[in-house]
Amino acid sequence: MGTTQLESVPEPKYWHLRTVLSEALDSEFTVGEILPNERDLAARFGVARATLRQALEQLELEGRLQRRRGVGTTVAPPRVGVAVGTEQHAWPGASDDVWQPADCAQAVPPASVADALESGRDEPVHTVRRSRVTHGQPVAAELLYIPQSSVPDLSAIDAPSGAARARAVLRELQRLELEGQESAVELGSARADDAKELDRLPGAPVLVVTTRYLAEGRTAALAVATYRADTCRLTFGDSGGVEIHQDPERRAS
Question: Per the database record, which ranges form the HTH gntR-type domain (predicted)?
């Protein structure tokens, strides 16, 4: 990586540095290679470490870099393609569902979830944790909130906890007639539990996809899926489905 000093430019200095670093990643580094430490990079480019961190954070947000525990900052591989939405509505746990159930417990949900479900804020709901792996790497973690009113016959099922309980809840949910679903996407920061599951650092940029499943004129379930922002690229088609595609402009150096 060169030692070119940054000249006075009308754009923010960190953004200009981000462009210089991005060009260096394309020409001088390979996927998985560890970058020099912040002190050396800041010295080479003649910038403050705070400016360097802003540029590195922006490149991480764009999926060019990854920060990994015990490793450091490495050059990220190209984004992988995973579908988030489809043209046809389907309950979680349907035959073509790519998510793997991991656990299920009854717990009081966050207030915003309780409000969306129109349940009491102190009323426990079934909370199903699921995970998603693509090309051998974890790309998303999901919490699926299901009020007891959506699965009234669940008490007769002998599956107290774990993945078996999660599958039982999903089977019962599918007894309802799905009337539709609505999804919203926003940028967020990885919570500690999601970061651990996704092999990221807490606070790393993530894409949060919230999906409301509608039945009997109400929200019968609410899913909050956390995707790695460095791994996933979301596009929206005319069908309203949401997909994550491999970036055709990205190539390994």
Answer: 11-78
Which residues in 112-121 are b (16+ Cβ under 10 Å) and which e?
Answer: ebbebbebee
Per-residue confidence (pLDDT) for residue 185, from 0 to 100: 86
Buried b (16+ CB within 10 A) or exposed e, 240-252: eebbbeeeeebee
* pLDDT in the model for residue 187: 81
pLDDT of res. 103:
92
Instruction: Flag residues of the chain having pLDDT under 70.
Output: 1-10, 79-88, 155-160, 233-253
Whole-angstrom CA distances from 17 to 54, 84, 238, 253 are 9, 33, 37, 19
Please tell me the distance from the alpha carbon of residue 139 to that of residue 130, in angstroms, as a whole number: 12
What predicted TM-score, i.e. pTM, was given to this entire model? 0.67
Burial class (CB in 10 A: 0-12, 13-18, 19+), 139: buried
The helix/strand/coil state of 217 is coil
Residue 222 CB-half CA count within 13 A: 21
Helix (H, G, I), strand (E, B) or coil at 187: strand
